[in-house]
Amino acid sequence: MSGILNSSIGRKFAMALSAFFLMIFLVQHFAINILSVFSADTFNEASHFMGTFWVVQYIFQPILILGVIFHFVMGMILEIRNRNARKIAYVKNNGNANSTWMSRNMIWTGGVILLFLGLHFYDFWLPEINTKFIEGDMSGTLANGEYRYFEELQHKFVDVWRVALYCLAFVFLALHLLHGFSSAFQSVGANNKYTRGLRGFGKAYAIIIPLGFIFIALYHHFNH
Ligand code: HEM
């Protein structure tokens, strides 16, 4: 593994693989969260399953967290190496000539997503760990026997500032994904007759998923 990560192509390849993994996570995260718009009970059931099934808790969750850390650290390394390799800095106001704003600012859009994750973990993940492992309520039920997930979700989106911060972060997520998707395909060498179709799919993904998250946040803000 360290051999692969010692070469520039190896590092880009590993970065792309971690990106695909996170993109798959994002789809499943969206699929569960969108349930909250249609049925509180179904959302509760799905969250309860994810929150208590040992494979998810003790295998997928640690892999996911390592995946996020790896993607972040690797992104920093690639950025620093690119900057050092680029002896003469880009002429800033001529940047549009050969690259997009998104491609030149992946480190910043990624940084905003990381800040969002800090807030998001504070909002949802820490209370979850607290309820399950500190208070010891592994089954995740309220006093009246119902699951608590939907109620907690709605409660979080009452505050207009939190909703605004979340929505802003989702816009940055879209910008990050707009370049990230095509860049990741480039890094794994998927430059063939499917490229056009893949590019279209990547653009759709990068816009639909963040828009969907914006919809969920706004929906719960206006319907509680
Ligand atoms: C409206 C949008 C969103 C809602 C309502 C939401 C909701 C949640 C909830 C309820 C949890 C707690 C899961 C648990 O029980 O541990 C969670 C965890 C998490 N969310 Fe989100 N989320 C949203 C958007 C996002 C986005 C855009 C990302 C990534 C950029 C993200 C990344 C994560 C991660 C990494 C976790 C920790 C997963 C784990 O439990 O291991 N979320 N989210």
TrEMBL record:
Top-level taxon: Bacteria
GO cellular component, as recorded: membrane
Record bears the keyword Transit peptide: no
Keyword Isomerase annotated: no
Keyword terms of this UniProt record: Membrane, Transmembrane, Transmembrane helix
Record field: transmembrane: 55-78, 106-125, 163-181, 202-222
Protein's name in the database: Succinate dehydrogenase / fumarate reductase cytochrome b subunit
